[in-house]
Amino acid sequence: MSDESRTEQPEQAGAGFERGTDGPKVIMVGMDGSEAAARAAAYAAGLARRQNALLAIVYVQPVYAGAAALGASVNETTEEVAGELVREIRASAERLRGVFEVRWQFHTFRGDPYQGLVKAADRLKADAVVVGASEQAGHRIVGSVALRLVRAGRWPVTVVP
């Protein structure tokens, strides 16, 4: 056998490669009730199903500087948004039961959307992050949450239009 046709086998570390066990274990998607976030969630659900990964759906409850002056009404409103998102997700999962199965969890975090998603991705040990593209014109100048996540360079980030 000539040297050109011989193939080298890489040394296997530890137990070696196991078919079907590589790939992402946790795919995180940010939800805020927008159309872009809904598209991102659908995309992430498809990824999670194909990869047999857990879909971690995260809603970051905004904390407003003047919230203390406004009283509990702001906190109640963000809690209502989180509750409505959970109801929508459960209804969608029930409609698709038996056709499109995916393991999912819903998490809420408080704070700035970017910092909340970073904290969530770290705590959940996300292998990938999916977010919807910002629909606000000002984000083209200042930078959107999606752009900031990409720049952080800590996880693969998919931005769904």
From TrEMBL:
InterPro entries reported in the protein's UniProt record: Rossmann-like_a/b/a_fold, Universal_stress_UspA, UspA
Chain segments carrying region Disordered: 1-23
CDD domains found in the cross-reference section: USP-like
Residue ranges occupied by any UspA domain in the UniProt entry: 25-161
Stated family: Belongs to the universal stress protein A family.
Name used for this protein in its record: Universal stress protein A
Record lineage: Bacteria, Bacillati, Actinomycetota, Actinomycetes, Kitasatosporales
